[in-house]
Amino acid sequence: MTLLTSDRRAAAPARPGPTGPRRATHYFDGLPVRAAHRRVFVLVMIAYFFDQLDNWNFGYIAPALRSSWGLGLERIATINSAYFVGMTVGGLLGGFCSDRFGRRRVFLHGMALFSTASVVNGLAGGFGLFVAARALTGVGLFAMMVCSHTYLAEISPGESRGRWQGRVAAVGYCAVPVIGIAANLIIPLGAQAWRALFILGGLGIIPLALAWRSLPESPRWLVSRGRVAEAEATVRALTGHDVDLSQAAARTGRPPGPLTSLRTIFSRANARPTAVLLVLFALETPASFIVRTWITTLLDAQGMSMRLALVATFCMQIGVPFGCWVSSRVSDLGGRKWPIVALLLAESALAVSFGHVRGHWALIVVGFLLTASGMAVGLISCTYATENYPTRLRNSADGAHNAVGRSMVAAIQPLVPGLFASAGFTGVFTAIAVGLLPAAALVAAAGRRTGGRSLEEIS
């Protein structure tokens, strides 16, 4: 089997090790994915599942909360803004801390925080505590999420990195239709029944216990801290191959501090990928999240009954796991950038159609496709962000770009009620469509091709 190297030449000659010949390789590149390796992917899938229960539940809960507590659209916008401010903080903290303290540690502590905060949301008796708990949910949830982007990139073979990230997400995002079914069954039971959906999100403590015992640290991060023997042992345990990571270790620098990381991310050497990714996340993330977080509320405000709005939202959001599956099929094509461009253009066209379509089932079909395209491009973009930077900066950069996207979502939340009042349903989704076009143009013109290559070769 030919193993990948930084210059695509044949791997260096094997040197003897304690268990026989050792193979010089870039971690998992060129090696088959065995059962032990798959079990790690399954652990991340389960964690993703509970992460997404908390990430998607409020879109269903918001109309019931409005009715139960007598809240206007402006109060719902405040809750959404607090959540995305929390995600911004979580993205930055999760990125910097995982480069400094390890992917595994941040992953686990993020799970613990969002599971606990979700339970507090379910028990909250006042608006202030509810907003605070929702913000903390955002911190923990997104710290874990940005860490998982990098973790998956670093433990996947280079030739199938996008496919594995898509598969993990496709299973994890099955939480979206699950929370939709639960909402349709639970919310109509009573004025306070929405609380049970937050308690359900707290069950993330179950995969946390499993991951605490079984989730290994990223070998690439271990090498960046000088722990080469541990990294080799981890690769050996997952792949069954006794590998020699000395060449990779010689090219890996130690993670810098947060300020140095930021300066490096925005340095002249990284100016091109940083500019492309900032625009991509700043424009695409708000577009996707307006659809995800506001659709039930806007349908309700437009006059659709609560029951029909919940059913319509549920049907549309089945597009989430479908979008993840689409991502797994196309992500490794076109060097990563061309699937992103194509999906951005599709998302823009579907947003225009969604704003103008009439009829319940037509709305559901177009909404399903809009949700799927947004999910696919968002997932591929997260893979793309991790590939544009070296190991010592990878999670800090991913966290920073995702934090910019979430901060834009937080800033836009108060504008949605006003835009809806002045331009209506059509105006909201036309604005989404227009905002996606500059991102597509910039990625097409200046984006790098990264898919299917070793992380060390790219950086």
Output the keywords.
459 residues, mainly alpha, three-stranded mixed beta sheet, 20 helices, 3 strands, globular, disordered N terminus
How would you describe this protein?
With 459 residues, the protein is mainly alpha-helical. The protein contains 20 helices and three strands. It has helices spanning 35-69, 73-101, 103-123, 127-155, 161-172, 175-186, 195-201, 205-214, 219-224, 228-239, 246-250, 258-265, 271-301, 306-317, 319-330, 337-356, 360-387, 391-412, 415-446, 455-458, and strands at 15-17, 20-24, 243-244. Strands 1-2-3 form a three-stranded mixed beta sheet. Strand 1 (15-17) and strand 2 form a beta hairpin. The longest helix has 35 residues, at 35-69. The radius of gyration is 22 Å and the shape is globular. The two termini are 24 Å apart.
